[in-house]
Amino acid sequence: MLLYETMGHATHRTDLGDKIAVWEVDASGVPRILFLHDHTTGRPAYRWPGTPLPGYPTGHISFGPDTYPTLATAITLLPQYETTLWEAVRAEHRATDTSRDERTS
Q1: What angle do CA 83, 85, 88 make, to 5 degrees?
Q2: C-alpha separations of 41 from 5, 22, 36, 93 in Å
Q3: Residues of 9-21 as b/e, b for ≥16 C-beta within 10 angstroms?
Q4: Block means of pLDDT (10 residues each) for the chain, length 105 residues?
Q5: 81 contact partners, CB below 8 Å, separation of at least 6
Q6: Which of 56, 72, 76, 91 is deepest in the core (most CB within 10 A)?
């Protein structure tokens, strides 16, 4: 689901119920992961790779602020989400690219 679009960036939310990813597509068309929530882990919130984030909900994993991993990098960092959350992000990105191509042609 597209959350908002600004100059050169489109921010999306992929929601699988207990797992949520918020990601953006930069001007070059590459999806980058901003953060994810996995309420099933019970793990305290942190900024990758391990900085605690007090006050954030359990299961929150944040990236950045300097750089955000591409989807391909996120798959290598957190492979346990490859067949669920990352596959859903990949599918939504493909669908977004297709609809964007149809609007511009």
Answers
A1: 85
A2: 31, 18, 12, 25
A3: ebebebeeeebbb
A4: 73 95 90 96 96 96 92 97 97 79 46
A5: 19, 36, 38, 74, 75
A6: 56
Reduce the secondary structure of 13-77 to three states and give it as a string: EEECCCEEEEEEECCCCCEEEEEEEECCCCCCCEECCCEECCCCCCCEEECCCCCCCEHHHHHHH
Residue with tokens 């980058």: 32
- Does the pTM surpass 0.90? The reply is no
| d(C-alpha 86, C-alpha 83), whole Å | 6
Cα 4 to the center of its chain, rounded Å: 14
